[in-house]
Design goal:
There is one protein chain. By secondary structure, the chain is α+β, with helices and mostly antiparallel strands. The protein has one domain. The protein has 2 helices and 3 strands; from the N terminus they run E-E-H-H-E. Helix 1 packs antiparallel against helix 2. It is elongated, with a radius of gyration of 15 Å. The N and C termini lie close together (7 Å). The mean pLDDT is 93.
Length: 94
């Protein structure tokens, strides 16, 4: 039996968010996770740009994250070394 795991990973973490019986269900959850991460990146970028002490390095990092997280294909998305949402197919016993 196949299941689909949705989570996000980075250089120091791997978080499983949910398990699904169908790829369609996993894709829907993956997209919700991607949009949450995108919203966080955009929010951080906005906060940095409005800050009294402008940090161009952090602005570039969060700008790149926001761009990377706009990818709607779980097979092509690459946000390394930051949180990258994924779908994995696992074979499990019944």
């Amino acid at each position: 039996m196949k299941v689909y795991i949705v989570g996000d990973c980075g250089p120091e973490h791997n978080s499983i968010r949910s398990v699904h019986k169908t790829y369609a269900g996993a894709l829907k959850e993956w997209n919700m996770l991607r949009l949450e991460l995108l919203s966080e990146a955009k929010s951080s970028l906005k906060r940095i740009r409005k800050g009294k002490k402008r940090d161009d390095c952090m602005s570039k990092i969060y700008g790149r994250m926001a761009k990377n997280l706009q990818c709607k294909d779980p097979r092509k998305i690459d946000n390394y070394p930051h949180e990258t949402p994924y779908i994995q197919e696992w074979e499990v016993g019944e």
